[in-house]
């Protein structure tokens, strides 16, 4: 099945014209989709969702003129128009790298020697001098083609006019998405505990954020519905944007089940909510139990076990999905992609032109050379299978250490099924000074004592968007950063800080 879909991608490429070789070529996802346009219904028009800024935004005349100057049916144009320096003014002539080979992580017949990758001025695959110049805001054709094929392979959105746009990573994409969808003073709904970068991006644009309660399955549809049904316009315009991290949620580690996602999508349809799906941990699928690896994992099995993304459920075109290479390749690349309806992507590209302009050319070369030229789609999936196995092992170590060292009579943590976070809830009722000291005081004490003991954790209040769950403190622990060998020691040190604060004495021997 996966083989057949990969073959279709190859056949589509073989039938297509070569990628354009000019500066900042204008391309879109429609050129790269395997499924021909017209086979699915179109997305709904969403004009009423756009902010005043993005409704009034016009595209740059300089960019429009440089686009029309590149019509291939006309004779070559000598440009005295845009101030795009000629390639011989760039001091770089080549870029060379080494990386892991495409089947390094496939269990059978794996290569291990690093592969050389490079780009030089004038080459056909990805001409370095074009990468070094100003690029098109939706990304280079090379990377846009790979992202579009990947999205079709993994999510296959159920409407026709979806497109991708390459981004400078999700933080940048989020800033742009809020600009497109929200006006100053608007409310944005999000999970009760969420990524602080999102709160900062929203607040910087004068948006107000409201946390929706969560349970073990992530954002609560009941609470979401009650907020929307009971909305009082005296608080401001009813929220029209819902931001979520549905898989391996940051910070709580919860992952929404398929049923939960469908419930929430239904509510979004009923209340005309636009969904921002921020999903950097989607591919870290760690299994439901410790040591779980339900049989041999191939890319095909791996894909079949992933939960449905909101993008894959989106029949109306009301989801903007944000993907990033930060967690699956490297954060310093500053690259990712968003997927949404053409109407939304059009607005997104216009805002990009007025801000970050385009993703970095050399970063796109690096992504293309590794993902497309060296690994291919299957190689990327093998890499994700490998990463998931690594994180599964680390999760198991950290979780076992929590079970062993934390005082379980006051601490509770669930095994995360996806992502890189473990969420510890500490019951305050057993604190010797419960009632006399504030929760944030106790949180500070534990945090500082843990630091003194040589371990850094994250405080729950840094992520809180709703009233602290009464009677509990929270801490976020990640198994992504430390050396694997230090994970157990780190939990032991954290446990010492918790025990000291609650005057519980040493960990009993097991
Ligand atoms: C939920 C979430 N969104 C976005 C980001 C940042 O992504 P990027 O590096 O692509 O800007 C993070 C980083 O931790 C995250 O946890």
UniProtKB/TrEMBL annotation:
Bias (Basic and acidic residues): 7-16, 64-73
Entry keyword set: Aminotransferase, Pyridoxal phosphate, Transferase
Biased composition (Polar residues): 52-63
Cofactor: pyridoxal 5'-phosphate
Domain Aminotransferase class I/classII large intervals: 163-494
Region (Disordered): 1-80
Domain of life: Eukaryota
GO terms, biological process: aromatic amino acid family catabolic process; lysine biosynthetic process via aminoadipic acid; tyrosine biosynthetic process
GO molecular function list: 2-aminoadipate transaminase activity; aromatic-amino-acid transaminase activity; pyridoxal phosphate binding
PANTHER family reported for this sequence: AMINOTRANSFERASE, AROMATIC_AMINOADIPATE AMINOTRANSFERASE 1
Family as reported in the entry's similarity comment: Belongs to the class-I pyridoxal-phosphate-dependent aminotransferase family.
Protein name: Aminotransferase class I/classII large domain-containing protein
Organism: Cylindrodendrum hubeiense
């Amino acid at each position: 099945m996966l083989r057949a879909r990969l073959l279709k991608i190859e056949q589509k490429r073989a039938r297509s014209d070569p990628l354009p070789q000019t500066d900042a070529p204008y391309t879109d996802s429609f050129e790269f989709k395997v499924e021909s346009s017209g086979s699915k219904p179109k997305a709904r028009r969403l004009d009423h969702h756009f902010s005043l800024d993005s409704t009034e935004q016009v595209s740059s005349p300089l960019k429009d003129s440089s686009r029309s100057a590149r019509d291939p049916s006309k004779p070559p144009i000598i440009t005295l128009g845009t101030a795009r320096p000629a390639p011989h003014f760039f001091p770089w002539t080549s870029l060379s790298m080494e990386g892991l080979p495409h089947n390094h992580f496939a269990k059978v017949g794996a290569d291990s020697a690093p592969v050389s990758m490079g780009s030089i001025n004038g080459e056909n695959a990805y001409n370095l001098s074009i990468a070094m110049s100003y690029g098109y805001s939706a990304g280079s054709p090379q990377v846009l083609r790979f992202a579009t094929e990947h999205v079709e392979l993994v999510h296959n959105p159920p409407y026709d006019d979806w497109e991708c746009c390459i981004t400078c990573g999700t933080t940048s994409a989020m800033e742009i998405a809020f600009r497109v969808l929200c006006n100053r003073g608007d409310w944005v709904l999000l999970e009760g505990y969420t990524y602080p970068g999102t709160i900062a991006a929203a607040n910087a644009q004068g948006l107000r954020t409201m946390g929706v309660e969560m349970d073990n399955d992530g954002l609560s549809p009941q609470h979401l519905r009650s907020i929307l049904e009971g909305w009082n316009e005296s608080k401001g315009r009813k929220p029209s944007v819902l931001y979520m991290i549905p898989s391996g949620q940051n910070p709580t580690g919860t992952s929404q089940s398929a049923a939960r996602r469908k419930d929430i999508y239904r509510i979004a349809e009923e209340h005309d909510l636009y969904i921002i799906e921020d999903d950097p941990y989607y591919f870290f699928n760690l299994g439901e139990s410790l040591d779980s690896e339900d049989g041999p994992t191939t890319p095909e099995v791996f894909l079949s076990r992933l939960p449905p993304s909101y993008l894959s459920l989106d029949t109306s075109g009301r989801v903007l999905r944000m993907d990033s290479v930060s967690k699956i390749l490297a954060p310093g690349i500053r690259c990712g992609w968003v997927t949404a309806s053409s109407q939304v992507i059009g607005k997104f590209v216009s805002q990009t032109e007025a801000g970050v302009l385009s993703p970095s050319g050399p970063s796109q070369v690096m992504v293309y050379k590794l993902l497309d030229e060296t690994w291919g789609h299957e190689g990327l999936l093998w890499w994700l299978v490998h990463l998931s196995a690594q994180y599964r092992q680390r999760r198991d170590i950290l979780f076992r250490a929590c079970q062993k060292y934390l005082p379980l009579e006051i601490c509770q943590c669930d095994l995360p099924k996806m992502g890189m976070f473990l969420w510890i809830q500490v019951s305050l009722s057993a604190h010797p000074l419960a009632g006399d000291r504030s929760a944030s005081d106790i949180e500070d004490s534990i945090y500082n004592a843990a630091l003194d003991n040589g371990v850094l954790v994250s405080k729950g209040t840094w992520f809180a968007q709703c009233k602290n769950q009464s009677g509990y403190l929270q801490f976020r622990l990640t198994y992504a950063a430390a050396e694997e060998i230090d994970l157990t020691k780190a939990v032991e040190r954290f446990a010492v800080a918790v025990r000291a604060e609650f005057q519980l004495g040493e960990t009993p021997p097991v």
